[in-house]
Amino acid sequence: MLTTVALTPVDFKRWAEHLTRQIAESGRDGRPFFSPLEAADFESPERRARFEDRLSIPLPQPTWMRVWEGFYRRGLGRKLMLEAIEFATRNHIEWIDLSVFGDNHAAISLYRYFGFVEIGRRDDRFRISGRSVDDITMTLRIKS
Hints:
GO molecular function: acyltransferase activity
CATH topology: Aminopeptidase
Order of helices and strands: HHHEHEE
Radius of gyration: 16 Å
Mean pLDDT: 82
Protein name: GNAT family N-acetyltransferase
CATH class: Alpha Beta
CATH superfamily: Gcn5-related N-acetyltransferase (GNAT)
InterPro entries: Acyl_CoA_acyltransferase (IPR016181), GNAT_dom (IPR000182)
Low-confidence stretches: none
EC number: 2.3.1.-
CATH architecture: 3-Layer(aba) Sandwich
Enzyme class: transferase
Largest sheet: 3 strands, antiparallel
Structural class: alpha+beta
Number of domains: 1
């Protein structure tokens, strides 16, 4: 079973490194995009203040998950999604909504495997590194 842990102010540097790495990998070498940003300074004092300020806001559910490139095709995405669905079930959350870029075929297949359906598509929503990227919204009704 996976464990979800809350971030603390001590986690800021790792969080900033994570986002910097995410931006660097997004769309690289023909891979799908998963961020509309091409670059950002995540380690600025302003970002640190916003990070710490947001930690005081209680969240009833996980809001973001990702599997790093070196861990693809090992079933971790499936485990993360199963954990999110189980969390929603335990906490009486009726729907899980998500957005995914249209070129991320592996993620879309995973979501469909779990029963997510596409409820919206914004063609050419983003221009990232000169490429047109569609934004897809998917949803899953959680059965109680």
